[in-house]
Amino acid sequence: PSEPIQVGDELALIAHDGMVAGDLPVLRNGDRAALTLLWQGSGNMPGLILSDAEGRWSVVMPAPSGSHDALTRDWRAALIPADAHTGVAEARLPDSTVIARWAVEALPLQTEIPAMDQVSGAVFPGVGELIGYSGMGKDVSLAEAPQLTLIWQAGAASIETSYTVFVQLLDSEGRVMAQSDSLPDNGARPTTGWRAGKVIADPHTLQWNPGAAAGEATLIAGLYDAATGLRVPL
Prior knowledge:
By secondary structure, this protein is mainly beta. The protein has strands at 5-6, 11-16, 26-27, 32-41, 48-52, 58-61, 71-79, 87-92, 98-104, 118-124, 128-134, 147-154, 164-170, 176-182, 199-205, 207-208, 218-224. The N and C termini lie far apart (49 Å).
């Protein structure tokens, strides 16, 4: 802000990295709206509200707990809801002062299941189903990067974790020959933005590891939490 924003008698917001006008950062369903704030004073840092400018949804950006210094850097974040509409998201102080805005581009809800080469039907509880895949046959060459597209369908529950998809080719001893790790649809369809019944086409290009050799291989795919490394169980 051009001048400190007083929040109570003993706290002021003296700086932040949010934008309120001009070319606003673009977010989509399930993306994180993040802010860095700098507070001065000894008062309690307030919670912020992230909401649609037209009042169609709102979520809390909670304040950190515990004591803080007289000069404190504060990181806040909240997810754009999976069912958010196209519009503008605003972060507000308790007195409704807008300190940041983002342009929200809503993703369409695709529910039609496309034709595919191989059916899977593997269910990941709390996330959804890997319906199948297309694009990689029974024979692959070490001279080319294998490519395939996974087809997912979201389950009924909302997903609070942004999971990473992994695809691997394992040799007969279980060693990884080739792999791909990415957020769904190369980051364009994070699991935090999946809505019930949504169908997601998720392309992958596997990279061969140096020790890969000719022979039989097993293709596997799944999801994991990048923050912990834990896989989502079937």
